[in-house]
């Protein structure tokens, strides 16, 4: 495959470069937006890492800061009104927030790519999909128009769009929703990035098409050994593809865990509530459990634990002290790798 | 009221010039009878809405000055089902399968191309005037998107109170404010919010406003078109629970249209699965979810991601290839055959009828429910093997 030959010319080869730093590490990231009504603190100290070949699912409701974190990583945050007062985003050990705009531009697209939720509004309606796919090669690799178009066809084949050569000159509106999402995936894959951020990639799709697209994404990820950050609010999709999960609430990570562990034994009341509030396909339940109240206003996040006004287990300490992200252990103190919970009462939550 | 009725009749008679319309014009006596029939209550468990061979084709035209019809988008193409008093009928299907068009037809927001919708024995596709108005009072709708279905320039009180302008007999003028506050309380909103505007509410709260508006006229049927799909998971559960509570409280019948199969299972007594303008399979919730016999239902159910990695491992997944064909040019015979793994020559030639499959007839099994497939077979795809 010729695509591989091209990227091998780019420095910093993947996987076996002897560099022990994780592919991507986010450290204590804060993002705030200055609005007329005050400062909205969208992200308040997020930490996570993604390794090559690994899938991290970031789960949260709207307004939990999951997309803003992704935009900060990609460097496509609107600044102003956005501001990153503190934090580091390390890509292979280098802090991207300290890089020049030109250096970041080189990483964006070729090293870190993003798949957006709504393919119809993310694609330019007045340009053919072939042109838009080829743009990646023309801009980043300086290929000619003709070469770029050949590459575009190759990519469309790869994401299994039937009759790619015939459809390369079609416009986005001529494709169905699932096909458009495949084009978005093709565009993200074009330069074989090391990391893909997928922001709700299947939310706008029907279940049968959703299954096709998620399978394709997982297959391509395996093939290229990419890191994948999957942002979603769908607990079902997460269970299907993720290796580990980070649950976000009001701009903080409240729980991280390997995927099986999280569903079996959640260590945070919010995660428990989310799991209980989804109806199951394979059983008919009684009344659904509903988390009381509404997600907090980011202009005035409650003091202490942000979840305390909605939490059935809240005590006085929850209203005053912000819980750190505790390491979660077995009852006898045995380590549970990768498990952390930002709840003062995680022991009671996980060990009943 | 009596005077008002007379005036309406006069207008009706003046309009009733012969040979002008294909819509039956009900004469005054007929209309009175129709209104009387509509106002009669239906007992629990009896059919309140009977849909028979409902068809809606949207014409495709060509040319600017001399428009000629070159085809039709067959959005709904022969749909039949019953809705019983007090039950919830779920309708599921992919986008473009015609489920929202069915909702509009039931609301008489669109005129059906053919077929009948009987509400308490009256064909509402042929009604007009006073009788239609009476039907519309009793069939209300809750829309999908709580952001666009509420007028941003009206206060919540005006939005919920607007149905009373059209049907003043439900709440007299002086009583409206109190009635609106009562409705706000019923859907779990603070009655003091009556003077606020929609933008001051969150998505879940707006959907509650939409539900309150639907309830305002004390309807018997509420048609819910994707009422929770725009909401966050934790808020979805609140709204679903509210809808179930209201159903018990006001003795409502729901037609619940959604693409989320888990939610539909949770709320529905019976479920119909639609594909390209036709019903593929219909039955009680456990008949459909635990004993599906139509391949499309099986594929649809197996594609739903289950939020439990353990339960998922034993499940078989059927991944359909390709997309839904265009409803302007549907496949011959069985419409699902182009994506079906069981398709044979017979499927291209003969349209399968929605009926209890021959092989399950008379058997005491849950697989014996209506399914439009020549080769209906039971297959449990939801539970782990």
Automatic annotation (TrEMBL), chain A:
Might you name a Gene Ontology BP term for this protein? peptide transport
Which CDD domains does the annotation name?
ABC_NikE_OppD_transporters
Q: Name one GO molecular function term.
A: ATP binding
ABC transporter domain location is 24-275
Out of the domains of life, which is the source? Answer: Bacteria
The record's listing under InterPro entries reads:
AAA+_ATPase, ABC_Ni/Peptide_Import, ABC_transporter-like_ATP-bd, ABC_transporter-like_CS, Oligopep_ABC_C, P-loop_NTPase
Signal sequence coordinates: none
The membrane-topology field of this record reads: Peripheral membrane protein
Name the UniProt key words of this record, in alphabetical order: ATP-binding, Cell membrane, Membrane, Nucleotide-binding, Transport
Q: What cellular component terms from Gene Ontology apply here?
A: plasma membrane
Give the record's family classification.
Answer: Belongs to the ABC transporter superfamily.
Q: What is this protein called?
A: ABC transporter ATP-binding protein
List the source organism. Answer: Streptomyces ruber
From TrEMBL, chain B:
User: Which GO BP terms, alphabetically?
Assistant: peptide transport; transmembrane transport
User: Where in the sequence does UniProt note compositional bias of the Basic and acidic residues kind?
Assistant: 1-15
Coiled-coil ranges per the record? none
Q: Give the top-rank taxon of the lineage listed in the UniProt record for this protein.
A: Bacteria
Q: Does the keyword Nuclease apply?
A: no
Which CDD domains does the protein's record reference? ABC_NikE_OppD_transporters
Q: Where is this region: Disordered?
A: 1-20
Name the PROSITE patterns for this protein: ABC_TRANSPORTER_1, ABC_TRANSPORTER_2
**What Gene3D superfamilies has UniProt attached to this entry?**
P-loop containing nucleotide triphosphate hydrolases
Q: Which InterPro entries match?
A: AAA+_ATPase, ABC_transp_ATP-bind, ABC_transporter-like_ATP-bd, ABC_transporter-like_CS, Oligopep_ABC_C, P-loop_NTPase
Q: Hey, which family's this protein in? A: Belongs to the ABC transporter superfamily.
| Name of this protein | ABC transporter ATP-binding protein
